[in-house]
Write a structure and sequence with these properties.
- With 383 residues, the chain is mainly α.
- The protein has 4 domains: 136 residues; 80 residues, no CATH class; 66 residues, no CATH class; 59 residues.
- Helix content is 85%, strand content 0%.
């Protein structure tokens, strides 16, 4: 072991025993640190090697072989932890690879999407997921990143092209709507109420078909267009309202004439009714216009009276039509002659004993008698 000059044997032995105890304490401390995870696996391996050298070269009294056995066990424990750690790293790397491959696959799927806002938000979320994901080995990480970046670039390129085209279309729409607005502003003071109102409707149809300009430009142009419309239609409505007020007296006169016209209903004498209506029509035209809101209703009522009188005239003409009467008389005469002939045929057949032929002739004559009854009714209407 060594020497301890000037000391008693027991004291010297105790000295070398204390040196052994110091090594035991170091081994025990390292065991505790490894068990608690308070030392890295790399440092643990270095410390174990240092302690093994210390035990092998120790000048101490104690069971050094047992310490080497404990260090061997500690080496095995560290190796097992290292194996578990490596297995966990492999699994973590596999999970990270799967995560990043999913991110890349979704990004590539979205690269051709035209849902610009929704897809842009989703790609930003995928970028955040990528940043939060563990790194892979440099080669694998770089390859996946290039695919992810290419997908985002493709989408951004399509989006920029879309909005560039949209800006161009909005610019064209703004130019077209500016022309519409200028024409509307030129028509705002027009007094040609009918033609100008029709033109404003045409301009509104053109506006709707022109597409949308940029929002601020669109709002400004629309405000100008509406202002021009409002100016014209307010002026027109004011004039027409004043005109309607002046026409209220005409409405009262036509209502009185309408009451006279409706007095001929129901029509019993079409000639008298036509005479009354002819006089009413002359007065009606002389009265002139009525307010627009009442015109259709009052004209419609007079038209119904006209239709009723015309129907009575048509019915009377049908009853006095010489040609129709002659046709009715000819039909009656023809049926009477046919019935008389069939009656003679039936009588002759009975005399000859041919009951079948007699029955057929009688049946035919009876059918014509029913026709004759209807024909005689028609002829009676001409009486």
């Amino acid at each position: 072991m060594g020497s301890y000059p000037g000391a008693e044997p027991a004291d010297a032995l105790a000295y070398f025993g204390r040196k052994f105890d110091e090594i035991v304490g170091q081994v025990q401390l390292l065991e505790q640190r490894v068990a608690a995870g308070g030392v890295s696996l790399q440092d643990a391996g270095t410390l174990i090697d240092q302690l093994r050298t210390a035990v092998t070269d120790a000048h101490a009294v104690g069971d050094l072989a047992a310490l080497l056995t404990r260090l061997d066990a500690l080496t095995d424990a560290v190796a097992q932890r290292r194996a578990r750690r490596e297995a966990e790293r492999v699994k973590a790397r596999e999970r990270a690879t799967a995560l990043k491959e999913r991110i890349v696959a979704e990004a590539e799927l979205l690269s051709t999407s035209q849902q610009w806002k929704q897809t842009g938000d989703r790609l930003r979320a995928l970028l955040d997921e990528w940043k939060a994901a563990p790194r892979l080995d440099r080669k694998g990480d770089d390859a996946l990143w290039k695919r992810f970046s290419a997908a985002r670039t493709t989408f951004d390129k399509h989006r920029r092209a879309h909005f560039a085209q949209l800006d161009e279309q909005r610019g064209e729409a703004a130019v077209g709507k500016e022309k519409i607005v200028k024409e509307a502003e030129g028509l705002a003071g027009s007094k040609e109420w009918g033609e100008t109102a029709k033109r404003f409707r045409d301009l509104m149809a053109q506006w709707k078909a022109s597409g949308r300009a940029r929002r601020d430009v669109e709002d400004d142009l629309w405000a100008r267009f509406r202002a021009a419309q409002d100016t014209f239609f307010e002026a027109r409505n004011a004039v027409l309202s004043a005109r309607d007020a002046d026409l209220s007296e005409n409405l009262d006169k036509k209502r009185a004439l309408l009451a006279q016209a409706e007095g001929v209903l129901p029509v019993t004498d079409h000639r008298s009714a036509r005479s009354v209506l002819r006089s009413i029509h002359e007065k009606w035209e002389a009265v002139g216009h009525v307010p627009r809101g009442d015109r259709d209703a009052i004209e419609g009522r007079l038209r119904k009276v006209d239709e009723a009188v015309r129907a009575a005239e048509d019915s009377a003409w049908a009853k006095t039509n010489p040609e129709a009467r002659a046709r009715a008389e000819a039909t009656v005469a023809q049926l009477q002659s046919s019935i008389a002939g069939l009656d003679r045929d039936a009588a002759a057949a009975r005399v000859a004993g041919n009951e079948k032929k007699a029955a057929q002739a009688t049946e035919a004559a009876d059918a014509r008698r029913s026709w004759l009854a209807e024909a005689e009714k028609t002829l009676a209407e001409f009486s």
